[in-house]
From TrEMBL:
Comp. bias (Acidic residues): 14-23
Protein name per UniProt: DNA-directed DNA polymerase family A palm domain-containing protein
Top-rank lineage group of the source organism: Eukaryota
Biased composition (Low complexity): 24-38
GO biological process entries: DNA-templated DNA replication; double-strand break repair
Keyword list, A-Z: DNA replication
Residue ranges of every copy of the DNA-directed DNA polymerase family A palm domain listed in the record: 599-829
Gene Ontology terms, MF aspect: 3'-5' exonuclease activity; DNA binding; DNA-directed DNA polymerase activity
Positions of region (Disordered): 1-44
Listed InterPro entries: 3'-5'_exonuclease_dom, DNA-dir_DNA_pol_A_palm_dom, DNA/RNA_pol_sf, DNA_polymerase_A, RNaseH-like_sf, RNaseH_sf
Source organism: Apatococcus fuscideae
Entry annotated with the keyword Transmembrane helix: no
Length: 870
DNA sequence: GTAGCTAGCGCC
DNA sequence: AAAGGGCGCTAGCTAC
């Protein structure tokens, strides 16, 4: 084996290879040093020798570097603050020799930073490689730099000299790898080295296959399901060690070879850049994807890792308070709904109100499946719930773990639901999403208010229901949810009566349940209950997606007192369009505006105690501006040039009667002065619905939405929707032309390009008609827009990231949310920094002015929290 | 007990 | 025949 095993000492385990490779861990067995093994001095000396050799002879070479990592659950935990490096592997080509004179040549380096039994051994060896890792002049190639970078930082090592990330290179070349064709080292080397057995060896076997062990069963035999033991255990296991070193050292070699082959592929592809952008960035004809990588994505890779490292400070006290309030609100809403439900379906006392299946059962029992009319939602369905109260059934001695209960519809046992599903899931069952429930319940709060205003003593009618013994089981969980005598519901109403009730509902803002329950108190109660159910779900989402996980320690690092505070998501270039995505946690989907009812964004704060604040800056209408630019749409360009409310201008261009009103001075497009009132109404108030339609169209059309879809959204006829769409295009013929050209492009060549010439492959666009083709053709018109917006954001961030003055002032990028960036820095220089940030964003391409046909407008705020910056 | 699916929903 | 692009995450449920 042409490997130099360098040295020894520290705890340890495993490396994720990026994207989801499941690696469960088998129970840890105690480690014992094999007899006769000596580690320590010798390994450290060898490490020093090799590090010295690199510094003296191989400093100008590019090294592929890889690590194995222990003590981390890569599915849940951020590598910032979690994980220890067990070994390093290095490779810089075959024409080197790390061996001592007289030894066989050694070209692959494998460095044991774990040691055999003494943590100090490994730490000492790692220390010998600090200079190499931190030397900015030695360029390093990584496969998923982010992970290794953060874990090395857990040892106090800050790698520098970032040269390339083979994952980003592979993404740039082809963003559509899926399933087994992933971006893992195994998969990529397997594909790019077809037929080369020396490189391919790894593509066939995963770490789990090689080192996995069946968990021991009770009888002492190995089970069938393989589990990966902790990496430190494998690495120290005398029987596995050699195989492990072989495996792990190969990663660096594979990364190196992959880099070479990907670079060649990228160099072989000339890209089409938007001409003014090419001019601004000095990108000459013949510019290749490799040039693109070097100019944009390589430095971007480094920047993203710095952002991840910086992390966002989170105010956990604020979240804890939000949690208490949210839980109280949710409890109230849940009870309100569940009392109503269990009055009609006794078993509903046991139900889980956040279960889609159970809600479907209550509201839609007995209805047909839209895809397969021979299937119906059973009249009664059994569910289980945890037996938390330890209820013991009659004749039994022990409490069962679960209580089984059967739900029928709220209209009574064996009664088919009178509701017509207005929306179905892809599998054909009635959807119970918020829009559906909302249409059943009516306007938020309306029914409940009406209920409280009823003249008789039945204000708290739901609370007054007579309790009865439930023959079906216990209701110890919450006595307030005890079953009640189901009120009689008269379902035998005439169509005339129904029509009257429906009109009454429409007039008052009640939902469809009002008529379905025969109106009156019963109808109002049903609406109010489902209204409450909507609230339960909304609060549930806020709690389980945001408020709770943000308080965990999996994604946080700790402050000097050891208190978790900064949150480090991972920022990935892993989308089809070139947008970023954020994971663990996803900080790009935190609730905003009115959805943020517990002010989660207030928890994202600057380090105020240390004199910091935030700058939040975002592009206004970035995608629409880029559409105007690439399509060279006169009307849109003009509208942006004139400024003001873009959607109002769109409405103005679409409807003659609005134009008339404006021309006659009956209405104003906008009013700048906030201190005074406009003399006549504003367009956005006078023609609210027209403006709303224009706004929806502005967004939808870029996504390729059809008249059919719009008709559903607007709840209008297909003809009317078609007419609206035609109106939109009538004012913007260039957009239609451009979209057709893009579709044609995709159909003919199988790809489309963004502003800077990134390509998205769309092979399905070249196939004959199918569902997949439809999707590809919509992507063909959306990707150049969404992808170009991503290009602009990338270029702007690079400009911000390398701005010398911003650095001097101490400003750091923390997060990007597609068209928005967040920075943190010292309060006293906030205004100066803000100007710079805005300038970088408005002139993202090498700082050149007026590159695009349309100006890029940026609005920004300085505030201590994300919430306040909006 | 876990894996994979379905449904739903947060953001731009 | 379907009918708006791009993401990540959670929960419930079923099948293994």
């Amino acid at each position: 084996m042409e490997q130099s095993t360098v040295a020894a000492a520290q705890p340890a385990l495993q490396e994720e290879e990026l994207e989801e490779q499941e690696q469960e861990q088998a129970p840890r067995t105690p480690y014992r040093t094999p007899p006769g093994t000596t580690f320590g001095q010798r390994e450290r000396q060898e490490a020093a020798r090799v590090a010295q050799l690199i510094a003296s002879q191989y400093q100008s070479r590019w090294f592929a570097v890889d690590t194995e990592v222990s003590d981390i659950d890569v599915k849940k935990e951020s590598p910032c603050g979690h994980g220890r490096v067990t070994c390093l592997s290095l490779y810089c080509g075959d024409n080197v020799n790390f061996a001592l004179p007289g030894e066989a040549p050694k070209r692959q380096l494998w460095v044991d930073t774990l040691g055999m039994d003494d943590e100090e051994e490994g730490a000492a060896v790692m220390e010998e490689f600090r200079v190499f890792l931190e030397d900015p002049s030695i360029r390093k190639i990584w496969h998923n730099y982010s992970f290794d970078r953060h874990v090395l930082a857990n040892h106090g090592i800050v790698p520098r000299g970032f040269g390339a990330d083979t994952i980003h290179m592979a993404r740039l070349l082809d963003s559509s790898r899926r399933g087994t064709k992933s971006y893992s080292l195994e998969s990529l080397t397997g594909d790019y080295f077809k037929g080369d057995s020396t490189i391919q060896q790894r593509s066939k076997t995963s770490m789990k296959e090689l080192f996995g062990k069946g968990a021991l069963k009770k009888d002492g035999t190995e089970g069938k399901v393989k589990k990966l033991p902790p990496i430190d255990e494998i690495q120290r296991d005398p029987e596995q060690r050699e195989k492990f070193i072989d495996y792990s050292a190969f990663d660096a070699k594979a990364t190196f070879k992959l880099y070479e082959v990907l670079r060649e592929h990228l160099q072989g592809r000339v890209c089409q850049i938007n001409p003014p952008v090419a001019l601004a960035c000095n990108m000459r004809p013949g510019w290749t994807m490799w040039d693109l990588y070097e100019k944009f994505w390589q430095p971007f890779g480094g920047l993203l890792v710095d952002m991840e490292r910086a992390g966002m400070l989170v105010d956990r006290d604020h979240l804890a308070a939000a949690q208490i309030q949210a839980e109280a609100d949710q409890q109230e809403a849940r009870r309100f709904f569940q009392r109503w439900a269990s009055a009609r379906v006794p078993a509903a006392q046991h139900m889980n109100v956040t279960s889609v299946a159970q809600i479907q059962q209550l509201l839609f029992a007995g209805v047909q499946n839209a895809k397969d009319p021979t299937c119906i939602l059973e009249p009664g369905r059994k569910f289980k719930t945890a037996n938390v109260d330890g209820f013991i059934e009659e004749g039994k001695k022990l409490a069962r773990k679960h209580i089984e209960f059967e739900l029928h519809g709220v209209w009574g046992p064996n009664k088919k639901s009178p509701l017509k599903p207005e929306q179905v899931t892809p599998t054909g069952w009635p959807a119970v999403s918020v829009p559906v429930l909302r249409s059943l319940a009516g306007k938020p709060g309306t029914a409940r208010k009406a209920l409280s205003e009823l003249p008789d003593s039945s204000i708290s009618s739901v609370d007054d229901i007579d309790l009865v013994e439930d023959p079906e089981g216990p209701w110890l969980n919450d006595p307030e949810l005890a079953p009640a005598k189901a009120p009689m519901v008269n379902l035998e109403v005439t169509t005339a009566e129904t029509a009257k009730l429906e009109a009454e509902a429409a007039e008052n803002g009640y939902g469809k349940l009002y008529a379905a329950f025969g109106g009156g108190k019963d109808g109002l109660e049903a609406c109010a209950a489902v209204d409450a159910l909507c609230n339960v779900g909304a609060i549930d989402t806020l709690l389980s997606n945001f408020i709770l996980p943000l308080q965990g320690s999996e994604v946080a690092t700790r402050d000097v007192q050891g208190k978790p505070n900064r949150i480090h998501c991972s920022l990935n270039i892993n989308t089809e369009t070139g947008r970023l995505s954020a994971r663990r946690p996803n900080l790009q989907n935190q609730p905003a505006m009115e959805k943020d009812r517990y002010k989660v964004r207030k928890a994202f704060t600057a380090d105020i105690a240390n004199g910091n604040t935030l700058i939040v800056a975002d592009y206004s209408q970035l995608e629409l501006r880029l559409l105007a630019h690439v399509a060279e749409c006169k009307s849109m360009l003009e509208a942006f040039k004139l400024g003001g409310d873009f959607h109002s201008r769109t409405a103005l261009g679409m409807y003659d009667h609005i134009k008339e009103a404006i021309d006659q001075g009956k209405c104003l497009l906008e009013w700048e002065d906030p201190t005074s009132k406009p003399p006549v109404p504003l367009l956005k108030d006078m023609f609210k619905s027209e403006r709303q339609k224009a706004k929806v169209l502005n967004f939808s059309i870029a996504y390729g939405k059809t008249a059919h879809g719009l008709a559903q959204d607007f709840k209008t006829s297909l003809d009317e929707a078609k007419q609206t769409v035609e109106r939109w295009y009538a004012d913007r013929p260039e957009v239609l032309k451009w979209q057709q050209a893009q579709r044609m492009n995709a159909t003919k060549h199988g790809f489309v390009s963004t502003l800077i010439g990134r390509q998205r492959q769309l092979p399905d666009a070249m196939t004959s008609s199918s569902k997949a083709k439809g999707h590809a053709l919509r992507a063909a018109i959306n990707t150049p827009i969404q992808g170009s917006a991503a290009d602009v954001a990338t270029a702007a961030m690079l400009a911000i990231g390398r701005h010398q003055r911003l650095r001097e002032l101490g400003w750091t990028l923390l997060l990007q949310v597609h068209d928005e960036v967040i920075l943190e820095g010292p309060k006293e220089s906030a205004e100066e920094a803000q100007k710079i940030v805005v300038d970088c964003m408005e002139n993202p391409f090498d700082g050149k002015r007026d590159v695009l046909e349309v100006a890029l407008e940026v609005s920004s705020n300085i505030a201590d929290t994300w919430y306040e910056a909006k």
